[in-house]
Design goal:
Layout lengths: L3 E7 L13 H18 L4 H8 L2 E11 L8 E11 L4 E8 L5 E12 L6 E2 L3 H4 L5 E2 L16 E6 L13 H9 L4 H6 E10 L8 E8 L3 E6 L4 E9 L2
Parallel strand pairs: 3-7
Antiparallel strand pairs: 1-3, 2-5, 2-9, 3-4, 4-5, 5-6, 8-10, 9-12, 10-11, 11-12
Helix pairs in contact: 1-4
Length: 240
């Protein structure tokens, strides 16, 4: 078991949607912020990692399980724990809890260390992750198996300057926006996500055009950004 970092958070207006609930992109961005806070507290900040190893953390997969979404102005607790690692990947969990410590949602995430110049993944040095007290394991986790889309619907988008993060690629929360936007206001306002799988296979960078392909059934949507640069599957529940 790794060290747990926890903070209290109040959901602001700018992280809320038309249903007065915290958006999935906001949840992912806040989770990244909280993981960065823990790293800084443990002496493993982004600056330390760049200065000592010339590396940066990159998320490659998310598995998100939702009981319910946090609500506008609600106080919640967010916990994170770097649970385990092997020579190629690190695994981190996030838990969003209400004020009574009931679980709202859980995120299981997979990370790699990337050289910002070569854009290639590096092996995980024990010294980098030692302060987190994560378990070292030999086995690589088997990720979610995504369905093939066949002949999907498609919509195009342009990468804007505001989509690019400090690692010089598209912020990982933007892929979710591009994926679900074609589903339309009526569907999104009448459904809640219950399970989300996201996998980032290839970086999308400034100046590129985005193709968002999707297939939608009554309870599930399957998405591909740029024919597989990112893959997303979402299990939906209709709001009663």
């Amino acid at each position: 078991m790794g060290k747990i970092y926890s903070t209290k958070y109040r959901v602001p207006f700018y992280h809320s949607d038309a249903k007065r609930e915290m958006t999935i992109p906001a949840i992912l961005n806040v989770a990244l912020q909280i993981s960065g806070e823990q790293s800084t507290e443990l002496g493993r900040s982004e600056d330390w990692l760049r200065d000592n190893y010339h590396l940066a953390w990159i998320v490659t997969e998310y598995e998100i399980t939702l009981n319910r979404l946090p609500k506008f102005l609600e106080y919640i607790f967010i916990e994170t724990e770097a649970v385990s690692y092997n020579k190629f990947f690190c695994y981190r969990d996030f838990r969003f809890l209400d004020e009574d410590k009931n679980l709202l949602l859980k995120i299981h995430s997979t990370w790699v260390l990337m050289d910002p110049d070569t854009r290639k993944a590096n092996r995980v040095d024990d010294e980098i992750v030692a302060p987190y007290e994560s378990e070292k394991v030999s086995k690589l986790e088997r990720g979610h198996k995504f369905a093939k889309l066949g002949q999907p619907e498609k919509r195009s988008y342009s990468v804007r300057y505001s989509d690019i993060d400090m690692n010089q690629h598209v912020n990982n929360s933007r892929y979710y926006d591009w994926a679900v936007d074609p589903l339309g206001f009526d569907f999104l306002s009448q459904h809640q996500p219950k399970q989300i799988y996201i996998k980032y296979n290839h970086e999308v960078r400034a100046g590129e055009e985005i193709s968002s392909a999707y297939l939608l059934t009554e309870k599930k949507s399957c998405h591909a950004i740029n024919d597989g640069d990112a893959q997303i599957e979402i299990e939906w529940e209709k709001i009663i």
